[in-house]
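Researcher: Here's the sequence for the chain we discussed earlier.
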Amino acid sequence: MPHTIQFLLTQDRVALESALSLDAGTARIEVQMLLQRVLGVNRAYLLAHPERQLDEVQQGSYHVLLQRRIAGEPLAYILGEREFFGLSFRVTPATLIPRPDTELLVELALQQLPQHGCVLDLGTGSGAIALSIAHSRPDAQVTAVDASADALDVARENARRLNIGNTRFVHSDWFTALAGEHYDLIVSNPPYIEDADAHLEQGDLRFEPRSALASGADGLDDIRRIVAGAQEHLDAGGWLMFEHGYDQAARARELLSASGYAGVFSARDLSGIERVSGGRYAGASTQAIR
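Model: Thanks. This is the structure I predict for it:
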């Protein structure tokens, strides 16, 4: 039976709260976003027309989306998009869902990126990091790599949708397909969760690609590969920066220092958690690929 916008906002907010342990505000926003998608309207319309009744087709479409969310499927996958760094990115189950914490990595990268610099984004997924940097710095050349061909297809589509042309996409297992290439800056949001971490079977993580989440017994296998391999692809004075887990900053700094990086640092996100670490390569100068 079709219902009004107000009825659904009230009834289904409670349903999401109960099913997903969401707070009332978050649950209400999620119901609004599902209704916006089905009705093709913005949030202001919902607030101005609470008495509008959905027709049977709309009600059926909305119910399908709501049940997917109640079952725990991430809202970003249901809607097929997620905002990141002021841009709207298409996301699919082949990619991680971009998260606000990762915007710190983009901000730090932009601070260190020289004019007409060359950037490498390792494990690009939806392209959120690479394309945010490329959009902010049209003078830069950004290379985005991923071991997943499906993820690269999503990233390429996002570049087309956002009309960002100063990027290229390479199918590669980290540095494997990049022999001889050098960059001013290398960034990554790699897998960093421990293989046995119970959180992998909880919440949104259940639906995201495990290969983009877990990385060995201590979660640092891929970070080790990146730290060890990056120097072969960095110009002298170039920076390596990567995201890591909430309790991995000290170990990340140790790995960087042991590999000879200078200016090793960790930076805190808006929650006060050390979320990004990095260092500068001080080796012999090479010409960055253009």
